[in-house]
Design a protein that fits this description.
Radius of gyration: 16 Å
Largest sheet: 7 strands, mixed
Low-confidence stretches: none
Number of domains: 1
CATH superfamily: Peptidase C15, pyroglutamyl peptidase I-like
Strand content: 15-25%
Mean pLDDT: 97
Strand order of the largest sheet: 2-3-1-4-9-5-8
Shape: globular
């Protein structure tokens, strides 16, 4: 049976939970579109996250790999379009490292595009009542670091999805949007199904004016 690797992160930035890990771990062992889900947690640490990711890719040889991260302040499921070759950390990671303007791969291109059908995923989520959008930036913290490293490695179809705070997190950040864990899990289930069954992306608008 084919394998799909889903990764989420440990908590960071003073949070006690990370919605990315809470969501992906609930799909561990499930079967979606003829593939079995393997959920793995990554450290929120530059360098170490990619070492863990590569270990899981080597062990599982997945058909599809989707990394998932927390995007506090975003109101919907954000399907990332591009990862850029730079680490520029506004805050320190969980090991206290704060790289500034450092290349992720000195031999790599300036950017990689996701190989997921990103617009089809967004359309599918919206059709199922889940707020979603194409995101034009994965930031420059560990999420972008992992997305770039995942795409830099020749291997499975791959990409990155950001999810909002959980309600219990947003309650500690007045005014911040949130999404129920059940909706995040369903969004990832649908994203995996669409990525496995739709090779060509949808030709629909998904750009941004700013």
């Amino acid at each position: 049976m084919k394998t799909v690797l889903l990764t989420g992160f440990e908590p960071f930035g003073g949070e006690s939970v990370n919605p990315s890990w809470e969501a992906v771990r609930r799909l561990d062992g499930q079967e979606i579109a003829g593939a079995r889900i393997a959920a793995r947690q990554l450290p929120c640490v530059f360098g170490a996250a990619l070492e863990e990711l590569r270990r899981h890719l080597d062990a599982l040889s997945p058909e599809l790999a989707i990394a998932v991260g927390q995007a506090g302040g975003r109101p919907d499921i954000s399907v990332e379009r591009v990862a850029i070759n730079v680490d520029d950390a506004r805050i320190a990671d969980n090991a206290g490292k704060q790289p500034i303007d450092q290349a992720i791969a000195t031999d790599g291109p300036a950017a990689y595009f996701s190989t997921l059908p990103i617009k089809a995923i967004v359309a599918g989520l919206r059709e199922n009542g889940i707020p979603a959008s194409v995101s034009q930036t994965a930031g420059t913290f560990v999420c972008n670091h992992v997305m770039y490293g995942l795409l830099h490695r020749a291997g499975p179809r791959a990409g990155f999805i950001h999810i909002p705070f959980l309600p219990e997190q947003a309650a500690r950040h007045p005014g911040q949007p949130s999404m129920k864990l059940e909706d995040c899990v369903q969004a990832l289930r649908l994203a995996v199904e669409i990525a496995l069954t739709q090779r060509e992306d949808a030709k629909i608008a998904g750009g941004a004016t700013h």
